[in-house]
Structures are given as C-alpha cells and as structure tokens.
Amino acid sequence: MNGTLQYTDFFNEVRDVLYSRSCDVMNRQRAEALETFMRVGFPTRKNERYKYTDVLQAFAPDYGIALSPLDGNLPQYCYRIGDAPIDVAQYYNCIADREDAVVCLNTMLCVDTVLVYIPRNKCPDHPIQIGNILKGDRDTMVNRRLLIVLEEGARADIIITDHAVNDCSFLTNQVIEAFVGDNSCLNLYEIEETHLLCTRYSNVYIHEGRDARVRHTSLSLFNGNTRNSCTVRLAGEGAEVSLNGCVIADKMQRVDNNTRIEHLVPHCTSNELYKYVLDDNAVGAFAGLVYVKEGAQKTSSAMTNANLCATRSAHMYTQPMLEIYADDVKCSHGSTVGQLGDEALFYMRQRGISLEEARLLMKAAFITEVIDMIPLEPLRDRLHFQVDKRLRGELSKCEGCKLCK
Amino acid sequence: MLEIRNLHACINGKEILKGVNLTVRDGEIHAVMGTNGAGKSTLSNIIVGNPVYEVTEGSVLFNGVDILELKPEERANMGIFMSFQQPVEIPGVSMTNFMRAAVNARYKAMGRDLLSAGDFLKLMREKRKIVELDTKLTSRSVNEGFSGGEKKRNEIFQMAMLEPVFCILDETDSGLDVDALRIVAEGFNKLRRPETSAIVITHYQRLLDYLKPDVVSVLIDGRIVKSGDAGLAEIIERRGFDWIKEEAGL
Questions:
Q1: Which residues of B touch A (CB under 8 A)?
Q2: Domains along chain B with CATH numbers
Q3: Contact state of B50 with A341 under an 8 Å Cβ cutoff
Q4: Taking the CB of residue A403, how many other CB atoms lie within 10 A of it?
Q5: A328 and A297 Cβ atoms separated by less than 8 Å
Q6: pLDDT in tens, A37-74
Q7: What is the pLDDT of residues A145-158, one digit of tens each?
C-alpha cells in the first residue's frame, strides 16, 4: 500500500524495543493494528473524513520516530497506563476507529499512554494540564495517546497544550479516548501553538453515558498543517455535548476540523460552533456531521460554522451535514463565509483607528464568541490575551525560531 | 480652515460633484442645504476620505494641507470628524475597546500622554452625560441594538471624546424626535470651542435654530449655486429650492 512501507518496516525493526518498553494492554493491540494498517493503507481524499487533507503527503517524509516513554511528574489522578489502578483493557482502543489507518499507526507505534482516571463522584482540585512540548535535533514523528476515564458523577477540566521549541519538522499523531460516565462532566481543551513546520493529526473519541456533559474546545492559534477530528457518541439519555473551536490561520497554514456527533438514544443535546479567521494564503476546512439514529427521538442539535476570509487568497471549505433517522427531532445546521465589512472598517478609520488596527479589532471580535463560552475564567482571560497577541503577530511560536517571523 | 476648490467626484463612474467651491473659516458654522441627490453626502464623505468615492479633479485644503492623498485615519487624527448619516453597527467590537483605540490614536497624534484605563473610563462617564447617553449603551457593541436616536447621540458622544477641530454633521437631525434633537444640538454647542468649525448638512430649519450658522450654502446638481447668511435657510424653509434653481438657470 502507498506510503505505508516505511512505517511497517520501522515497526518490524523496533518491535522488540516497543514491546519491552510498553505494557501488555497496549502491546496486545499492535498486531491487529499493523494488519489493518497494511490492509487499508493511508486514507485518500476519497475517504469522506479526510476529504480536505492530503494524508499521504503528511506522512511521506522520513521522520525519526520517537520511542521514549513518558517523563515528567504526573499530577493527581494521572497515571502511566502501566500503573493504572483500574482494568484499562475495557477502555484502551475500544472506541477509537480501528479501521482508520492513522489511528492504527498510533496503536502500532505509541509507547506509552497517559491515563486520567477520576473515580466516582471525585473532582480534582485544579484543572489538569498536559503539556506536549516538541523538541529534537532532527525531524521527528511523535505518536501519543491519552485515555480519559470519568466514573459516575466525576468531573474534570483537562487542558492539553501543544508547543514546539525548535525549528525541526514535527509530525504529531495523537489519539484521545474519553469515557464519560453517567452524570459526569468533562471539559476538554486543546490548544495548539506550534510553528509552520509542525503537522498535527488528532483523533478524539468521546463516549458519553446517561446525563453526561462534555464540552470540547479546540483552539488552533498557531500551527503548520493540522487535521483534527472529534467523534462523540451520545449513548445515554440526557447526555449533552458542546463542540467548539476557533482557528486563526495565516501565511500558508492549514487547519481541517472534522467532527461527528452520534445521537444514539433519545433526549440528547448537541451544540457546535466553529469559527475561523483566515488571512494571507491560509486554508481552512470544516466538515461536521450530526447523525441521529432511528429511535433517538427528542434529539436537539445545532451546528454553526462561521468563517472570515480576510484576503482573497484565503480559502475556506465548509460542509455541515445532518443525517436523521428519527422523526421527532430538532436539528439545525448552517455555515457562513464572509469578509471584513468595508463600511465598518471605514467607520473606525474615520475615528482615527488605523486600517490595521480596525481589521484586528474586527477579527478579534469575530473569534471572541468562542472564547467567551469557556467557563474556566483564568483560561478565558489568558486566551483573550493570546488571541490579541496572535492577531498582532506577536505570539512567539517558539524561542529562537527563524521560520515564522 | 477648510478650502474646497473646483472639486469633481464620482461614484461607480457617475459624476456627482461638478466643480464645488466652498470655504469654511475658523470658528465658522457652515450649513449646506440642497435637494435630495444633490451631492451633499458625497461632499462630506470625500472630505473624510471614504474610499468608495473617486475624486477626479480639484483640491481640498485643510489648514493649508491638501488632504486628498491622506488616509481616512490620518485626516481623523488631524481633527476632522464626521457624524455619520447612518452610523455603522460593528458586532462584537465593544464601545469601550473601539473608543479606547480611537482616543489613543487621537492623543498620540496630538502628542498627548495616553490615558490610563481608569482615567479613560472616567472620561467616558463625563462625556456620556453631555448627550445623556445611557450607561448600558457604552457597554455594548458599537451601535449594535441602538435605536436611530441613540445612534445619533452616540455620534456626538464620540465627537466629545475625540475633541475634533472640524466637524461634519451629516443629517445628524434626521430620525430624531424634538427632545433628542435638542439634546444633540445643545451637546454640540457645549462641546464647540471658539475655533471649532463645522459643516452642517440638513434639510430642516429646526437644527439650524439651535446651531445658528454663519453661512448657508445651497448645493444643487453638484455645484454650490447660492450662499448667504442664516436668513437664506429661513427662506428655503418657506419657499423650497425651485426659485434658486431658476435663478441659477437649472
């Protein structure tokens, strides 16, 4: 299969190292993942969920592949998967899409997994932040994995940040599986601030039980080429999910967000808002599907994708989709692509505000809606500050980086 | 203060101004009246540099400087202010952030020290009172959800914040009820310093009763065809424009 050979060869080369450094739960999944990976190959644009991204191109370069286990201290409720206090076999690789070659590659090559496990009715004192810092002296691929288990009545705020500290090319392939138990509550934030030579593939899978509440917020503030997907299964009555995202992209940056929300039972609610501000030659894509299974009555769902193209050379692809097999539901979906209003710009300039500043105010105003929805106040304030800096071109991507000045 | 010479201008290829000559002296209130479509709004938009209009001939001197090549924000920072006929709504941009950016730009241009956040909010409170603008409105997005009258008050509020030396009131009285008109006009008079000049565009005598223009000019079909003192506005109020057209041979 196209492009897969370098990875299967590598896998065979390092097989012993992998198995010895990793734990049983993970090792048990590798053979099947390898088999599927070889069988299906990298997805092409004919694959609906990869329609706007060239996967092959992203995975073609010859990266060094990181095989080191986790280091650093883990906060309360966080474990290396090998030290898990629960039986993780019933969770690991159970809701990830096993037919997706990118996920399979992660399952094959990932050495370690962070487990966030919040027992019944518990809530950490502080939000949990997991910082991913990319550094290396050569181009590197990183396969990383996160498993989140919230038992009944638990709650957690988890913030995942991506940074790159030097100007090598990095390819990150991330898989997150989150099991959100009955009446539990998860706020999951992903913030990317990397650089132009970083490629990020992220596949997030969330499974919600009865009356569970999940808010997933994805923020692409600075990147190279990013493809995020998020799949949510509302499997217990009364479950709610909010998927929100904001993207700021300029230069040659690309961000592709792909979401799928499955309403499997009645009385579930989903809300989705993704906003993009694209400048220069940036390319954005959003494809969101809300699937309502037969019998999932009284589903309530709203999806909005709003985009601002500040230049004529910025491109946005948007595809909001509904698939409904129940007859008593309320579902809406919509998307817009617009430009900065000339009248508003002139109005501000007449008040002495420079064209640049006026554009900035309008872009920030556009994106603010997503940030304002974040319930965690210190994070919200921080992000307002970061967005402003980003739009002013002052966000330092990485110390000493010569590339994205 | 302002000298317009032989100004020709068009929009979308259609000629609107056909050689306007107009002088506004320091401290002068200059009313410009005229029929619908005569070019009054075009004239004011050209003075402030709206890129939609194209100047084909002539010059506009502001205190001796030809401003036609300057950007709108550069003109604004010289102290030129226009109260818009239709103020624009800018969703998401708060009045405070908007005003902060504008005041900072103006103060910078005047060589003044920038205001601290506290002093700035104090200034907002003070100036708001002049036009009796509701507190609620200054905490919203620019002009969003404002009524017609509130938008016009908001224009004069912005004028109070920016302390311009030359103002254009483009039909600031349209859509205002009698009380709001009085508040806006009295607000303008309060803010006006002896050297402040203004062009006041209006269809109605009532605003001029408050503002007491020194000169009234009549713009018809892209040209100034008649000028006079405040008495001219009263005659127009009674007799309309037809007799002026006849006089001018139009």
A1: 48-52, 71-73, 76-77, 81-82, 84, 87-93, 97-98, 101-102, 105-106, 109, 141-142, 158, 162
A2: 2-248 (3.40.50.300)
A3: no
A4: 12
A5: yes
A6: 999 999 999 998 999 999 999 999 989 998 888 877 88
A7: 999 999 999 999 99
